[in-house]
Specification:
Length: about 200
């Protein structure tokens, strides 16, 4: 089912216009039920061949944060340890094993990726990046604030949490209730004419 009208301006502000990248967090728990609801929304975003390669680790315990800490760059350590929830977004390099279930009307799809590991890696990375963005949009739409970042050692994080090498880390996102009093001034964005062409 599709809607005939878009979101109202208030809703668009929640997701984009007034939404900000947060670095400071209120000491307020993020309920697991809300995390699950966030994923349930995010999983509906499109991926090529419905491949859905992203894997999400929601790091909330002190032990999980301590495991991540050695992989963080110094500038991201304090804010990540302080966030009630940090999501490690990874991608399954063998995502194609689920394609018979996820994309059953093209039976040869799994074999195409199995025979071409470079294509599988590229596809998994691209689509897990999309899925991470969907998670941010879903979280914002449900009232959470986000602090996505790539300032970490992805190989070290992968080794810590997915040591068999099948799943690789893509990026991180702190997910909680931000402290709006400590936001940096908003950075500029490129205009349409700077970034776009209509051909």
């Amino acid at each position: 089912m599709t809607t005939s009208t878009g979101l109202d301006d208030r809703s668009l502000d929640i997701i984009f216009g007034a939404a900000r990248t947060h670095n400071n967090w209120r000491e307020e728990e993020v309920p697991e039920a809300l995390i699950r609801r966030t994923y349930e929304l995010a999983r509906m975003g499109p991926t090529s061949m419905n491949c859905s390669p992203a894997r999400f680790l929601f790091l909330m315990s002190k032990d999980a944060k301590a495991k991540l800490a050695p992989a963080l760059l110094p500038g991201n350590l304090e804010k990540t340890l302080a966030a009630p929830c940090t999501v490690l977004i990874g991608y399954d390099t063998n995502f194609h094993e689920r394609l018979p279930e996820l994309f059953p009307h093209l039976p040869q799809a799994a074999g195409m990726y199995a025979a071409n590991p470079a294509l599988a890696e590229e596809t998994a990375f691209r689509n897990s990046s999309l899925q991470g963005a969907y998670l941010i949009i879903a979280a914002r739409s449900l009232g959470l604030d986000c602090g996505p970042m790539s300032g970490f050692n992805a190989a070290a994080a992968s080794a810590a949490f997915w040591p068999d090498g099948r799943i690789k880390a893509n990026f991180l996102c702190n997910l909680a209730y931000g402290d709006g009093e400590k936001l940096f001034p908003r950075g500029p964005r490129l205009s349409f004419d700077d970034a776009c062409q209509v051909l």
